[in-house]
Amino acid sequence: MSVPHRVAVLALDGVVALDLGTPAQVLGAARADDSTPLYAVATCTPGGLPIRSSAGFQVLPDHGLELLERADTVIVPGIHSGSPLHDGTVAAEVAQALRAAYDRGARVMSICTGAFVLAAAGLLDGRPATTHWAYASRFRRLHPGVRLDPDVLFVDDGRVLTSAGVAAGIDLCLHVVRTDHGSAVANRAARRCVVPPWRDGGQAQYIERPVPRAADNGTAATREWARQRLHEPVALREMAAHARMSVRTFTRHFRSETGLSPAQWLLQQRTEHARVLLETTDLNVDRIARDAGFGTTAALRQHFHARVGVSPTAYRRTFRHPPPATSPAPRSAPPAPAAPPPHAVPPVPAVPSAPASVDLGVVAPGRPGMSELSTATTP
Q1: Nearest to 101 by CA among 130, 75, 128
Q2: What DSSP string runs through 253-273?
Q3: What string of DSSP letters covers 158-208?
Q4: Residue pLDDT, tens place only, 12-47
Q5: Sign of CA dihedral 138, 143, 145, 151
Q6: Which residues does 34 contact at the CB level (< 8 Å), separation at least 6?
Q7: Range list of H helices, the chain
Q8: Nearest to 367 by CA among 375, 377, 359
Q9: Angle CA(100)–CA(106)–CA(108) in degrees, nearest 5?
């Protein structure tokens, strides 16, 4: 990937203000080790003309649609008005510019109801996608050919990515940083933005429900307890006992809060912990399988491929950054015994006991739905 990676944010009339600012804020916080920005984000509109936002102010862009011709990634923020929401259409010049960007190899993304724009341009036909849960029925009616999943925070379908509503755009942008540059860079960007590097579950947990949950019946403390024991078998009944609930009550509360069953959530946590170990340590795959709680290498490979889309070994080749090379001491002039070596190798950092980042609630190509945990981690 070239540095900086060129990102074009395409704003249309009625643009959601938070969605518009999210790419510049999150991607702009992604920096290399020497603080070099990894993304260059610019905003454009059709004709470079001012547009109205959903927050009562106008947006005066610096670019027109020609910005899409040289962008590596194109992002369409959500909208609160306009033909994409009303009748499923979009201006011909916008559709043509989006399709041309995709056809030449650009990555195309949407935040929230920006998925209506991508669908109207024909870029989501036959693909999995998501949007704000409150617009799911309308989206299905306008675009029945799209495989909509309104329960996830975002969908990564290769070069086309979509996110759920509003703040889920932050999750998507952090996922992109993590995919492009690894967890360490994404975590630094998250800290810079003062947001968590990942969120549990999908947007199902945010859908309005007729009966609110009692505040003191949450499972957050038990989830943290389980995270500290990923290397051990963690049974559902043990989690329920820790939360002081029956298994049935605990499972109901857990799914309501995270959008996942306890087994699915544990599997995601174990997979993400394995990702961190593959990125940050030299442990072999067998050891990582044990430390992440999969028990066997075969189980790790199966679940890792289902979740991430590649094998653990292939993932390590892509994201494991080798330590800086050191120069050996000259043979003819060895250092004095009391002198320190000229190039001391820094100590290997401690392996974290819990995952540093996770992209939960994600659907990706070739990645089947989550199965329940392996026998090593279920009751």
Answers
A1: 75
A2: HHHHHHSS-HHHHHHHHHHHH
A3: TTEEEE-STTHHHHHHHHHHHHHH-HHHHHHHHHHHTS-S--SS-GGGGS-
A4: 999 999 999 999 999 999 999 899 999 999 999 999
A5: negative
A6: none
A7: 17-28, 83-86, 92-103, 114-120, 136-142, 168-181, 183-193, 220-227, 236-242, 247-258, 262-280, 285-291, 297-308, 312-319
A8: 359
A9: 90
| In contact, 330 and 300? CB cutoff 8 Å | no
CA 299 to the chain's CA centroid: 23
Encode pLDDT of 311-360 as tens digits: 899 888 877 655 444 434 444 444 444 444 433 333 433 333 333 333 33
What distance in Å separates the CA atoms of residue 98 and residue 113, rounded to the nearest whole number? Answer: 16
Q: How far apart are CA 59 and CA 15, in angstroms?
A: 9
Q: Which of 173, 232, 219, 150 is nearest to 359 (CA)?
A: 173
Q: What pTM does this model have?
A: 0.65
Q: Which secondary-structure segment (H or E) carries 43?
A: strand 39-44
- Identify the bridge partners of residue 233 per DSSP, sorted by sequence position: none
Tallying the residues shown for the chain, one arrives at 379
Token duo for residue 236: 């559902």
Which residue shows structure tokens 């249309």?
Answer: 12
Cα–Cα dist 337/153, whole Å: 58
Residues 17-38 as b/e (b if ≥16 CB within 10 A, e otherwise) read: bbbbbbbbbbbbbbbeeeeeeb
Q: Residue 14, class by beta-carbon neighbours within 10 Å (0-12 exposed, 13-18 middle, 19+ buried)? A: middle
Catalytic residue list = 112
Coil/strand/helix, residue 239: helix
